[in-house]
Structure formats: C-alpha cells, structure tokens
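To whoever is on call:

I kicked off a structure prediction for a single chain this morning and the downstream step that reads the tokens threw a length-mismatch warning. I double-checked the sequence; it's 169 residues and nothing unusual in it as far as I can see. Pasting both halves so you can look.
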Amino acid sequence: MPDAQVHDAVTLAGATLLIPATWAIPSDNRWLSCAMVSGGHLLSGWMFSCDLDVSSEQAHRWGPLRWLWWPYERLVAHRSWLSHGLIVGPLLRVLYFAVILEGTIAGLCLGLQAVGGPGLLWLDGWHRFWQDIALRYPRRVLEFAVGFVLAGTSHSVLDWIQTGIRRVA
C-alpha cells in the first residue's frame, strides 16, 4: 500500500487535473464549479481518506478530534468494500461523520434546552441551514460530492495497483 505522502501527492495532482476537466463542463460559474469539485477532492483525500479505518497519518490529521474515528476504525475492516469501495467508501465516511456531528450538536442543543437555553431552536436552525444549502445549490452539492468520491476512488485504485504489482513481483 502506498504511504501517506504518495496518496497526498496523488490527491493534489487529481485536484489539479480536475480543474480543467470541470472548466470544460458548462456552468453558470465555472470558477465556483472548479472550486467545489477540487475542494471536495482535497478534503476527501486529505481528511476523509480510505485509511481512516487504521491508525494512519491521515487519521492523525484530525488531531484532538481523532477519537471521532475510533468507532469507525473498529467497525470497518481495512481495505474492505466499506472502506475502499469506489463509491460506498467515501459516502460511508461522510455519512459516518455526519451522524457523529449530528449526535454531538443534538446533545449540546438538548443540554442547552435542559438549562433553559434555546437548544431546540438552534438544532432546528442547524437542520434548516443544511436543507437550504441542498435545495438552493443542488449543482454545487453534486460538484462537491463528485470531487469527494473521486478522491476516495483514486486512493483505492492506487492501493489496488500496488497490491497487484506486489503479487506479480
């Protein structure tokens, strides 16, 4: 399996190559489209890597929030179709993170509500914010998702190529 520096370089190269590819697609704002696709690619490759299922350099980038990925590391077998699946892997990681984030925010809001604060109003505002993003900017959400999934795909394909070369050698 290639090391983190190789995956990081491939992620950066992929994000760079996605700029002219995205530019070629008609858009109301090509600059924003390129930023969404490449930004999703970089975020996925550097922070939501396939290797979050093991103690890796990518996992340690989360710093003090590394503990968020501990259950994922225990539940998902390394290099399984869940972690390294071309589409399933990246989407599972973002879904996992969304569930953890939602649970944390809901817990904080319920705690605020319990002491007389505006907790449930804030929780409703949080949900409305993300709903508004999805409804107002579906193209941008799709562009980001495409870049995000492509980074996970490139990681998996690179791992498969190196494994194949090792088996032949």
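Update from on-call: the warning came from a stale cache, not from the record. Cleared it. Sanity check on the structure: Helices lie at 4-23, 30-47, 57-60, 70-75, 81-84, 88-114, 119-136, 138-168.
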